[in-house]
Amino acid sequence: MLERKALESLYEKHCKRGFTYAYGTAGFRYKADVLDTVMFTTGVLAGLRSIYLKGQTVGVMITASHNPPEDNGVKIVDPRGEMLEQSWEKHATDLANSASQSFTSFEQKLQELIVKLQLNSNAHGSITVARDSRESGPRLLTAFKTGTLVLPNLLVLDHGVLTTPQLHFLTSKANELPKNTSIDEKLYYQEFLSAWDEIAELCGIQSLPYALTIDAANGVGAPKVKEMLSQREMFNNTFRVVNDDWKTPSALNHLCGADFVKTNQKLPQGISNDTRAEHINCSFDGDADRIVFYYCDLQGQFQLLDGDKMATLFAKFFQELTQTAHLQDELALGVVQTAYANGSSTRYLEQVLGTPVKCTPTGVKHLHHEAVKFDIGIYFEANGHGTVVFSTKFSQLVDQKLADASHSTSAHKALQILSSFSKLINQTVGDAISDMLGVLAVLSILKWSPQKWDQEYTDLPNKLIKVLVPDRTVFKTTNAERQLVSPVGLQDQIDALVAKFDTARSFVRASGTEDAVRVYAEAATREQADRLASVVGELVEKY
Ligand code: G16
């Protein structure tokens, strides 16, 4: 490691004192002006993590995803493309908070970590980094890169501006492919477009069955999805991207994007209420790791097809394919949701499809870990964050059966489709672009309109609101965030309110990405859901 004076000089370049950081739902996320210190220490931490993992590449994404333009943040990605192992979240937080105190405490904490983890700080490590389109990105990237200089033998590959899922994907590829392979976003386009080509050929898809409008939240997803879809003739004239002004940072997520559409349950700016059945819309969030779909019914009413609808669509589709391939008894298929999942979606999965459903706390890191316990693990948060993961057993069985010529033509085709879908879906993390192609492929194969997809079950009316409180950390939950344990007595008051409404449910939890408490309510009618959210919100405001 560097000698003390050099270390101190790097520290003084970026670290400010006095802020206390907490590791949230998806890494550190705050107003950009307080992030320099934690970006510097994340440079060090990512290096330590790579050294700990014997030089495997660790990814770092500088983004605040769905948050407003003045925020920023950082997500750390482990070598296989998944979120940082949870035991390391504490190391990341401790290192950031020590640097926030003083140089001496940072130096001590760093030494302590090196000893505790038995690391050779001069060993080789590798980091891959990217950022979204935020104005503060370049400044925070500099702080991050300075942090990586603390450990002398780190190789840092800067990909510039990418979507978050592209960075997850490239991190996994950096560890999977031979060392001299050039790792860049072309790999991403090639991988998913070839999987799309395979499915299109197998299923005779010659063009998209719907005119597709993509709201890119004025974020990095705009140039990336255009670049990708423009590589295939079949997409020409069938898609258009609105809210694509990613070069104007103040426009990011403003009146548009997946979070706006899901929370407000209405069209984003730039999309009109087109009632044609052959039209479908979708919205990405600021770093393109979430997507929701929607359409307008014949009465011109906005209808949302959110993460729950995607989970159920994939569950039904994969269930039918495994049955046709005679693999239903050998492969375990399951869905993972959070407390935000609409009660109707859970009932549909369990009672109509007979699919096992697990519930975890909010955060991809929780859902992903539960989903990998299945051979086909489908996980989606209602907000549109999710993907499908396929086990090694899945790949082995499908390959084995494909090599065996004794089964029927329909079983063979089902096996081929299953195999191609496992390549079309970005298994490392929720990915707006890859999920979009996955959904479009399923709808094209089933010949389903958005209306038909929506009719599988009817959502219970629901409402999500944000409440500002003096200290959100007093709100602590249990039972996969469905019940509050603190403030004491508040849950009983919520339960008493819920009992006054029909088929109702409500829960309260502190956001891990914004300084707010979220209140969710669902009930038999729209009026009741709105009213319940509002009375629970008023209760929360008193704390
Ligand atoms: C992140 C997480 C998601 C989570 C969302 C909101 O998404 O990756 O799993 O649902 O934050 O979390 P919270 O309710 O704790 O604020 P993103 O797209 O903002 O990175």
Task: Describe the protein.
The chain is an alpha/beta fold and 543 residues long. The protein folds into 4 domains: 4-176, Alpha-D-Glucose-1,6-Bisphosphate, subunit A, domain 3 (Alpha-D-Glucose-1,6-Bisphosphate, Chain A, domain 3, 3-Layer(aba) Sandwich), CATH 3.40.120.10; 188-305, Alpha-D-Glucose-1,6-Bisphosphate, Chain A, domain 3; 307-454, 3-Layer(aba) Sandwich (Alpha-D-Glucose-1,6-Bisphosphate, Chain A, domain 3); 462-541, TATA-Binding Protein. The chain has helices at 4-14, 36-52, 87-101, 103-116, 137-148, 164-176, 185-203, 221-229, 258-264, 307-324, 343-353, 364-371, 392-403, 409-424, 432-446, 450-454, 490-498, 526-541; strands at residues 28-31, 57-62, 71-77, 125-131, 154-161, 211-215, 239-242, 279-284, 291-296, 302-305, 333-337, 357-359, 376-380, 386-390, 462-467, 476-478, 483-486, 505-510, 517-522. Bound molecules: 1,6-di-O-phosphono-alpha-D-glucopyranose (G16). 1,6-di-O-phosphono-alpha-D-glucopyranose binds at residues 25-26, 65-66, 285, 289-290, 362-364, 381, 383, 385, 511-514, 518. Residues 56-99 form the Alpha-D-phosphohexomutase alpha/beta/alpha domain. GO terms for molecular function: magnesium ion binding; phosphoacetylglucosamine mutase activity. The active site is at residue 65.
Low-confidence stretches: none
Rg, nearest Å: 23 Å
Strand residues, percent: 15-25%
- Give the C-level CATH assignment of the largest domain: Alpha Beta
In the sheet with the most strands, the strands line up as 1-3-2-4-5
Number of strands: 19
Range of helix content: 40-55%
Q: Which architecture name of the largest domain does CATH use?
A: 3-Layer(aba) Sandwich
Identify the bound ligands. 1,6-di-O-phosphono-alpha-D-glucopyranose
Q: Please, what is the average pLDDT?
A: 96
Cofactor: Mg(2+)
Binding site for Mg(2+): 65, 285, 287, 289
Protein name: Phosphoacetylglucosamine mutase
Domain Phosphoacetylglucosamine mutase AMG1: 185-292, 306-448
